[in-house]
Design brief:
Length: about 300
Amino acid sequence: MTLSKCGVSDEGYVYLALALMINPSCVKELYVNKNHSGGSAQKLLSATLEDPHRKVETLQLAECKLSEKSCGIVAAVLRSPNSLTELDLSHNDLGDSGVQLLSKGLSSPNCKLQILRLAECKLSEKSCGIVAAVLQSPNSLIELDLSHNDLGDSGVQLLSKGLSSPNCKLQTLRLSKCGVSDEGYVYLALALMINPSCVKELYVNKNHSGGSAQKLLSATLEDPHRKVETLQLAECKLSEKSCGIVAAVLRSPNSLTELDLSHNDLGDSGVQLLSKGLSSPNCKLQILRLVLDMSL
C-alpha cells in the first residue's frame, strides 16, 4: 500500500492504524514517505505492528519529520514479536541518539530486520560505533544504507569492526557521500579482507578515494574468495591511474558484474588502460557506467 506524499498527518495515521488493527490480514508493505507523521499517530501505528497477528514486512517512513523519539517507538516494535524485514527511516533528523535508541530494537532476538535505510539522518561517527555493535551481535541485516551522513574516516574505522565480525551478514553496503578518504578506504578494505563472506554490493560514490586506498581495496576484489559483484565509485575524483588498478582487478579471477566509474576524470588514456581488463577472459562485467554528464 503506497500513500507517499499524500498530506497525511496525525489524524490520518490514526485512521490508518485503526483499519490495520481491525483487518490484520491486509497490507504487508506500507509506504508512507514524505508525510508529516506525529507522535500519537506513530504510537497507534506501532500498536498494530506489535500485534503478533500483523504481518507488515516493509515499512517506509522516509522524510516524515521524525525525530530521535520516534526511534524509541520503532525499537519497541522491533523488540516485540513482529514480521518487519525492511525499514526505511531516511531523511529524518534522527541523530546519533536516535540510532542509539534504535539499536535496542535491532539487537533484540525478535528483530528480523534485513534491510535498514538511514540515509541523510544527521548521523556522525558515533552512530557507526553503535551500528558496529549491532553487526557484531547476532542479527539478520543484509542491507545497510548510511549514505549522505558525515561519518568520515573515523566513522568507517568504527564500522569496520562490525564488518569484520563473523556475525555480520551484510550483502549490500551504501556509504555514498560520507566524507570517506584514503584512511577510511583502508579500514573498509581490511574489514572486507578479514570477512570475505560479507558485502556483495558496495556503493561508495561521492567520496574522495585515493591511490593507496584504491590499491588496498582492489586487493580485496582480486582475492578469489571475495564475491563483490557491484562496485560504484562515481564522483570519487579518480584519474586514469585508477583505471590501471581496476583493470588488474578485472584481469584476475573476480565476481564483478557491475561497475560505475561515472563523473571521474579518467580520459581516453584511462579507458585504454581499462580495456585491458575488459578484454580478459576473467572479466565477468555485465554493466559498465562511464557517464560524464547526468543529463546524458
